[in-house]
Amino acid sequence: MSKKTILLRSSWQVVNIGDIAHTPGVLQLLKAYLPDVEIILWASEDFTDEVSAMIRKGFPG
C-alpha cells in the first residue's frame, strides 16, 4: 500500500501575522493526528525567506 499524501496549499499575506499562523497550525495538527501521511506544502509566491526559515525550523521533514 502506498503512503498517503496531503497537498497543503498555503496562500496568505505575509504582512498579516494572523494569516501566517494558519499554515504552521494546520501542519502541527496534521503531524499530530496523521503522523504516517506525507505532507507537501505548496506555498504562495510571497513566501519570504524569513517565513520559509520559520516553517523549515518547525517542520524539518
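(ticket continues) Second input and output from the same batch:
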Amino acid sequence: MFIAYVVVSSLLSLALLFSGFTKVTGQQAIVDQLVGLGVARRFVPVLGGLLVAGAAGLIVGSWVEYLGVAAAACLVLYFVGGVVTHLRAGDAKGAMPTVVLTVASAAALVLRVLSF
C-alpha cells in the first residue's frame, strides 16, 4: 500500500502545487473564477497557500506517517468545501475537477492509513 500512496500522493501533489501557485500568484482568470463563486478576493492567496501546504504534507507524509494522514484528511475537507462552494453557486459542472481532487485526496488518506 505504501507504494500506491507514494504514487497517488506524488501525482496529487503536482496538481496541488500547480493550483496553489496560480492562486498564490493571483492569476487573474483564477481570481475571477473564485470571486464569481462567492469567494472573497483576499482569501484566494490563502487558499493557494493551503494547497501548497497540503502538497508538502503529502510528500513529507511518506516519511512521517501521521503527517501524511493529517495532510490527506485536511485536503479532503478542503475539497469538500470547494465542492459545496461550486454547488451553492449553481456551478455543478465546474465542480467536477474538485470532486476528482476530493476522491484523490480520500484515496491518499486511505492508502496512507493502510500502509502503517
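Agent notes: The mean pLDDT is 97. Helices lie at 2-24, 28-36, 44-60, 65-88, 96-114. Closing as not reproducible unless the customer responds.
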